[in-house]
Amino acid sequence: MKIEPLSKVMGAEVTGVNLNGPLTPAERDQLYQAFLDHLVLCVRGQSFADVGAFLNGARHFGAPKIQHMESFRFDDHPEAGVVSSEDRDVKDGKRIIRGTMFHTDESFIATPPKATILYAIDVPSRGGDTRYVNMRRAYETLPDETKNEIGELTAVHYYGKKRAGRKVPSLTEAQMAETPPVSHPVVRTHPETGAKALYAHETMTDYIAGMAPEASESLLRRLYDHSTQNPELQYHHQWRSGDFVIWDNRATLHAATADYDAHEKRLLYRTMLKGAATH
Ligand SMILES: [Fe+2]
């Protein structure tokens, strides 16, 4: 097994390992440590016979959770879903490319998934990169006064928040009723590494608890701009067929890029691994 950095910001590439098979405890530890260190880990050249085999590969890193979005998941494997160039919104049936705004997955629930995994089956000849932000570094590069200002703050995350601009996929009324607002610390201490990371993103973070609306908006805007407008904090993953990419939702943001040819097929399997309470 070989592990090499993909960029100076974050990400590592793993070659010479087959996730279909059993791994030795040493191999598994090495892979898991690389995931914690690099935040995004791309295991190249994987080939899973079906979605069940993909989930078994994912289990080397943790326990897959049932997907929240019923509409995009497999009936016989509810822990897995597809991300496809054929995705349609559940309500209006329009073609959508999900997740084009920077976000961390399912921060709108109390125990967000610790990691998300995508496995690329079909990728367009160009475009369709997944962009990542290193939120550990985003925190580290904040001015000291901002670090002090936000150190003890809590933010409310809500799927139904009012958003200007791009929308998120519709949830049914029943799903919305099961998705009330939840709160998370703005600075999240990683339960496995102890490192602090910024944990706020425009897609689901609604407001800072206990702060006047204007002050909350202006502080959050500063944090969003700091984290997402700086290329020095980003790694862009160019997909190859056979890539198995796992990222740490506790210390990264990610966004899809809707820049590929609409006639080209893009198909990935997706799962998320169970996480723990954030505070
Ligand atoms: Fe996502």
Explain briefly what this protein structure is:
The chain has 279 residues and is of the alpha+beta class.
Description:
The chain is α+β, with helices and mostly antiparallel strands and 279 residues long. The strands form four sheets. Strands 1-2-3-13-5-15-4 form a seven-stranded mixed β-sheet, with helices on one face. It has a three-stranded antiparallel β-sheet with strand order 12-6-14. Helix content is 20%, strand content 25%. The model has no long low-confidence stretch (mean pLDDT 94). Fe (ii) ion binds at residues 99, 103, 105, 254.
Report the radius of gyration as a whole number of Å: 18 Å
Please count the beta strands (DSSP E, at least 2 residues each): 15
Shape descriptor reads globular
**Bound small molecules, deduplicated:** fe (ii) ion
Percentage of helical residues?
10-25%
Order of helices and strands: EEHEHEEEHHEHEEEEHEEEE
Tell me the number of helical segments per DSSP (H or I, 4 or more residues long).
Answer: 6
**Structure classification:** alpha+beta
Give the count of structural domains. 1
Mean pLDDT: 94
SSE blueprint and pairings:
Layout: E1 2-5, E2 12-15, H1 25-38, E3 40-43, H2 51-58, E4 80-84, E5 115-122, E6 130-134, H3 135-140, H4 144-150, E7 154-157, H5 173-177, E8 182-185, E9 187-189, E10 196-198, E11 205-208, H6 213-228, E12 234-237, E13 244-248, E14 252-256, E15 267-273
Parallel strand pairs: 2-3
Antiparallel strand pairs: 1-2, 3-13, 4-15, 5-13, 5-15, 6-12, 6-14, 7-8, 7-11, 9-10
Question: Key terms for this structure?
Answer:
single chain, 279 residues, alpha+beta, Double-stranded beta-helix, 20% helix, globular, binds fe (ii) ion
